[in-house]
Write a structure and sequence with these properties.
It contains twelve helices and 15 strands. The protein has helices spanning about 10-15, 15-30, 35-50, 60-70, 90-95, 140-150, 205-215, 240-250, 250-270, 300-305, 335-345, 355-370, and strands at about 55, 80, 100, 125-130, 155, 165, 175, 180-185, 200-205, 220-225, 225, 275, 285, 290-295, 345-350. Strands 1-9-8-5-4-2-3 form a seven-stranded mixed beta sheet, with helices on both faces. A three-stranded antiparallel beta sheet has the order 7-6-13, with no helix packed on it. The protein has a three-stranded antiparallel beta sheet with strand order 12-14-15. The two termini are about 20 Å apart. Bound molecules: pyridoxal-5'-phosphate.
């Protein structure tokens, strides 16, 4: 049995009429940038996340770059983050000459180890970029405490975290991306809220930061052809927004489905020799954007999966402190042992709302056979 890591084709077949109609409406309205659907999606996301403001941009990466620029992550200022993540979480700091300062991750959550952040703070530190990775949020209580003590800006990379929320020691759950100064989401196709191309969004509860993000999205203009800042051309495409509005109608269902699938995996693999699983820490609602295992002889296992036509993904094979593009930061092998070890053990199994129980059975059967 061939098992796709991800495909949008089943979703499209199920909701073809709605997707086709949504796209047709945009085309009928005539050519537009920042069309009505973009504003409608921003509103829909504000309602879903309880963020006060939302600004649709061209990608999650752009969202991080705009936010970093506005927050002053540049010109030698130091920003603390973790090296076990997608490139864009750190390249946004380096883009304008900010200095990424890494601290290692928690070995059970893969998120930044909040207990190690304060040791990395210097008089040049201006911010923290926590990443809410795979299925759960970083320890936002500790991060916000440290930020308050040292007067740091917090940019939440919630690219993967749509639908996740954090209660921690607070009185109510807060959606990922709405706790720090800015939060960002990615609409890359595989993400929980994925488009059929690129897209992203910046959210904030601060009116001033909202106005800046809105202006930076269109070249730093405050009114047509009047530029207060040197900004970007980074608009969320209207057709992608129309597609995402259809997907928002089914968001709760899609999140629940991901949880059901994660439980299929847990049930079938929990007693499998050779495997360990990440742990959810802190009072929070996880969302299974990715289902990861930590595997003994990971490379042998994925070779076996490949032979049996089970697609998988490795997030991430090499931590950022060892990437060639960041060699100028001067880090070396051994600096972040947890990140480095997880890179050799981790593997992501197929999970998306339309995957079937038979397919999950086959994936689990294939894995159990390998460890027999
Ligand atoms: C996907 C992702 C991004 C980048 O989003 P794009 O929309 O692909 O540009 C940034 N950070 C993390 C952690 C991601 O997973």
């Amino acid at each position: 049995m061939k098992v796709n890591f991800y495909t949008s084709q089943r979703e499209y077949q199920e909701k073809k009429a709605e997707f086709d109609k949504a796209i047709e409406n945009v085309l009928k309205d005539g050519i537009s940038t920042l069309g009505k659907e973009v504003a409608d999606l921003e509103k829909s996301i504000m309602e879903f996340t309880s963020a006060k403001y939302a600004v649709g941009v061209a990608s999650g990466t752009d969202a991080l770059v705009l936010a970093s620029d506005i927050l002053g992550f540049k010109n030698g200022s130091e920003v603390i983050t973790s090296p076990f993540t997608f490139l864009a979480s750190t390249s946004c700091i380096a883009r304008h000459g900010g200095q990424p300062v890494f601290v290692d991750i928690d070995e059970e959550t893969f998120n930044i180890d909040a207990a190690k952040i304060e040791d990395a703070v210097t008089d040049k530190t201006v911010g923290i970029v926590p990443i809410h990775l795979f299925c759960q949020m970083a320890d936002m209580d500790s991060i916000m405490d440290i930020a308050a003590r040292h007067n740091l800006k917090v940019l939440e990379d919630a690219a993967e975290a749509f639908g996740m929320s954090w209660k921690g020691k607070g009185s109510k759950y807060k959606h990922a991306g709405t706790i720090g100064d800015y939060g960002i989401y990615s609409f890359f196709p595989t993400k929980t809220l994925g488009a059929y191309g690129d897209g992203g969004m910046i959210v904030t509860n601060d009116e001033g930061l909202y106005k800046l993000a809105k202006s930076y999205r269109v070249h730093g203009a405050t009114e047509k052809y009047h530029y207060d800042y040197i900004g970007y051309n980074s608009r969320l495409d209207t057709i992608q927004a129309a597609i995402l509005l259809v997907k928002m109608k089914y968001m709760r269902e899609a999140i629940t489905k991901r949880e059901v699938i994660a439980n299929w995996y847990f049930d079938r693999l929990k007693d499998c020799q050779g495997l360990r699983f990440p742990k959810i820490k802190g009072e929070q609602h996880p969302v299974y954007y990715v289902f990861n295992i930590l595997a003994e002889n990971r490379d042998g296992l994925v070779e076996h999966l490949k032979k049996n036509q089970v697609q998988y993904s490795i997030y991430y094979p090499l931590p950022l402190h060892l990437q060639k593009c960041f060699s100028y930061l001067g880090y070396k092998k051994g600096d972040f042992p947890v990140s480095e070890r997880v890179c050799t053990e981790i593997a992501a199994l197929p999970i998306y709302p339309e995957i079937t129980e038979d397919e999950v059975d086959f994936v689990c059967h294939t894995i159990r056979n390998f460890y027999k």
